[in-house]
Amino acid sequence: MPSSNNNPVINFLKRVLKIEAEEVKATLSAFLFVAVLMSAYYILRPVRDAMASDWTDAEVSWLWTLNFFISTAVVTVYGLAVSRFRFRILVPAMYGLFALSFVAFYVLASTSGDRTLVDKSFYVWVSVFSLFHISVFWSFMSDLFNKEQAGRLFGIIAAGASVGGIIGPSIPSFFSASLGTDNLMLIASLMLLVPIPIIFYLQSLKSSDLRNNDVILNNPAAKIGGNPFAGFKMFFSNPYLLAIGLFIFLYTGISSFVYFELKNLLSEFSRVERTAVWAQMDLAVNILSIATGLFVTGRIVGRFGMPITIALIPVLICGGLLILAISPFIGAVVALQIIRRAGNYAVTRPAREMLFTRVDRETRFKAKPVIDIVAYRGGDMLMAWLFTGLTQGLGLGLAAVAVVGAGIAALWSLVGIYLGRWFERDDETAG
């Protein structure tokens, strides 16, 4: 690597983005990794979401309930894989298996006479994938970078997810009618194979450039070992992990409420039109989040600390929901969705992932999926039924539901402040 004193590009990266010379290769590779990964997901996401408008709130709530149990089973199987397989092949193998699964869905969709079961199975499986693929990615990142580096670099790396969020939905947004939704599955499958060589390259950079072998205690080529169910035990016995789980649970409450409202508003559109609308919203979200992730997130962490960083978006969403309760209209729901998701991708998610730099590798790869997937989907399930009860059971309108959401967002903010203060402690009690 050329000296930063003689390389204007590295000088620029250090001055503007706070990337040190020895971190450039790893940061850019991680950026590319998540950009390709999220491109594949964002090709699949609008295909999935377009299906939901064909079903009632109760049907979707049942699918989310099924998703919770399937996600729990997948995390359990993953815990077994973490314990039994060498770490070097663990992460690339996960993405290879998901790629094969979407090829299988393409075959089923092309040959099935009645697509109802295939569509609902695809909806659930993409929902499993939507959390699993990014949870594994951030586990890998927190194992690659140390705590100090995470504070500077995770926002930049997260901007790569937003780049993927622009590239990915551009394909179904502009070509869903000509390509057909089934062919989008094949495109996404091929893209999921691209990160595999990047993973092996990053593993080599951890020792050669980052010199972060002290981030873990065991050989990176070895098995993590231990009890395959240890992730569940770690989660329920560690207050730090429980607080992270509660933070995610409350986030799902806000996500579920806004998602259901948008789903219902789009019910009169055709499936192709819905696919394009969802994809265009993804484009707007990710364009907004790129600049924030590149230039703002790391500076917020450095200047204001983790408590303010992780609670910032929950506070903004609480205020937005109160405004929505006073003046409920469609444009406000769309704007709130864009702000919520962009803020999560650029600020809240990177801050949340920094929390896992304080725990060991076994916790990152066993307990983290329990939090990211099982706790998240449990929140989805409960909040989906809560929304269904409020709207179909009690007959509440948008304004009343927004008030309930504002209360959830307020509690979400408080939990974020608590986590941020715990993260900044000098002792090592979090792990």
Task: Please provide a written account of the structure.
With about 425 residues, the protein is mainly α. It has a single domain, classed as Growth Hormone, Chain: A (Up-down Bundle). It has 16 helices and no strands. α2 runs antiparallel to α8 and α6 packs antiparallel against α12. The longest helix is centred in the middle third of the chain and has 33 residues. The radius of gyration is 21 Å and the shape is globular. The protein starts with 7 loop residues before the first helix and ends in an 8-residue tail after the last helix. The C terminus is likely disordered.
Helix content: over 70%
Cα-atom radius of gyration:
21 Å
Mean pLDDT: 80
The CATH H-level superfamily is MFS general substrate transporter like domains
Name the CATH architecture: Up-down Bundle
- The secondary structure category is mainly alpha
Compute the number of strand runs: 0
What are the SSEs and their pairings?
Elements: H1 8-17, H2 24-52, H3 57-84, H4 87-111, H5 116-144, H6 147-179, H7 181-191, H8 195-208, H9 230-237, H10 239-265, H11 271-295, H12 297-304, H13 306-326, H14 330-354, H15 361-393, H16 398-423
Helix pairs in contact: 2-5, 2-6, 2-7, 2-8, 2-11, 3-5, 3-15, 4-5, 4-7, 4-8, 5-15, 6-7, 6-11, 6-12, 6-14, 9-10, 9-15, 10-14, 10-15, 10-16, 11-14, 12-13, 13-14, 13-16
Brief write-up:
With 431 residues, this protein is mostly helical. It has 16 helices and no strands.
Structural key phrases:
431 residues, mainly alpha, Growth Hormone, Chain: A, 16 helices, 82% helix
